[in-house]
Amino acid sequence: MICLSPDMDGGEMPLPMPSYGIHRIYAAALSAPSPVPREVRVFDLGRSNRAELSAAVSEFGPDLIGMSVYVWSTPGLLDLAVDLRAKLPEVTIVFGGPSARTELFDLPSYAARAAALDALCVGDGEAVIQDIIALETITRAGLATVGGLALRLPEGGWLRTAPARHIPMGEIPSPYAMGLMPAGAVAYLETYRGCPLGCRFCEWGVSRPARDVFDADYIAHEIAAFRRLEAPAVFLLDAGLNLNAGAFRNLVKAHAVDGFLAESLFWAEIYPTVIKEDHLEFLRDVGAAYLGVGLQSMDEAVLRAHDRPFEMTRFASAVDRLSQVAQLEVQIIMGLPGDTPEGFRRTLKFAMSLPVGSVRAYHCLVLPDALLTRARPEWAIEFEPDTLAMIANRDWSASAITAMRHELTDQAHRTGGSSGAYWWSFRQ
């Protein structure tokens, strides 16, 4: 199992944040019945250079390599896969994670190197890795029987297998319960998967049944593990604290069993226009240290074009109520198709008028399961293939995006904020 845990962009977060996705798959792999003895090991590229990691993996001599790829790690891990393919020609290499999508690896900058891969995991990784490990031998014919894969064809292109096997949420192995996560680091909590919204700019825009939730007992066991590990902060990974009613009820029940969330820093995203009193009561109780509130644009026509539900009057009211119980950060996007530089400046000015601790502007990215596959053709988007950063579109010229980047950097630092490669933070 290979991942990349990069240093925090901009150095804002001093707390250790281990890779969670790879440990989810690690836990599932260790829990899988296997017809033969097997050893599973995790390698993190963030702690070594590519040559060192390639040598270490080659010495281990695996027959299966799984890599967890995100937007920041895809180019480096793909280069590593090419290295390992040359050293281990018989090894099976499978990419999983949010960036493991055929549309990304068919891009001209990736297609040649993608020949080093055997498959992409496009279903729930826990089920896929267990079904691969259950094979007597890992062959191409065997992989074809595993659901949730896109198999790389020798002549190029991909062959989709059947849908991934469904694992009941309560049976998904927990790396916290299995003692695989480090002590003293930020802990990650899931209460459900997927998102009921379908915003075109967002990678979350793949819906799942609302019943795909972790029950209260499962969540309570996770929180108890966070206490044992003395986690300084708990990061709720859900698309939004309040976007799945059943999952939220289970979280409240689990918190009543062990109140550790109130003793640590609690970070979450929240969808502001469906705030209810029970959400506010929970946030008062845990003392949320950070709530991310997605505005993206104050132009309702822009958001409608991206299939984003939004009501300005309800948004402002919700932010006011939330600001009384938690530290808020309002998030906006620079370079959205349909928006304009003038419209973005109005959004930034409005966001900075709100009673929030900070405003964060993100450079628009053309992500898999989002604008990469769901952009409207008339938007005419252009993007940088490695970072997936928007270069230009129908409404933003390349020069306008470059100029806005300079403008935001100057404004952020002039007013005591900070910036990273693709974000700018404005303190209130």
Structural class: alpha/beta
In spatial order, strands of the major sheet run 8-9-10-11-12-13-17-16
- Beta strand %: 15-25%
User: What is the terminal-to-terminal distance?
Assistant: 42 Å
Oligomer: single chain
Mean model confidence by pLDDT: 93
Can you give the helix content as a percent range? Answer: 25-40%
Report the biggest beta sheet as strand number plus sense, adding barrel if it closes.
8 strands, mixed
What is the rounded Rg? Answer: 22 Å
Number of helices: 15
Q: How many E-type strands?
A: 17
Report low-confidence residues grouped into runs of 5 or more.
Answer: none
Shape: globular
Structure described in brief:
The chain has 15 helices and 17 strands. The protein has 428 residues and is α/β, with parallel strands linked by helices. It is globular, with a radius of gyration of 22 Å.
Note down, in words, how this protein is organized.
By secondary structure, this protein is of the alpha/beta class. 34% of the residues lie in helices and 16% in strands. The chain has 15 helices and 17 strands. It has helices at 21-31, 50-60, 74-87, 102-105, 108-111, 125-133, 140-143, 216-228, 245-257, 277-286, 300-305, 312-323, 341-352, 371-374, 398-414, and strands spanning 2-3, 43-44, 64-68, 92-96, 119-121, 149-152, 158-160, 187-189, 233-236, 265-270, 290-296, 328-334, 358-363, 382-383, 390-392, 418-419, 423-427. The protein has an 8-stranded mixed beta sheet, with helices on one face. Helix 1 (21-31) runs parallel beside helix 6 (125-133) and helix 8 (216-228) crosses helix 9. The chain is globular, with a radius of gyration of 22 Å. The mean pLDDT is 93.
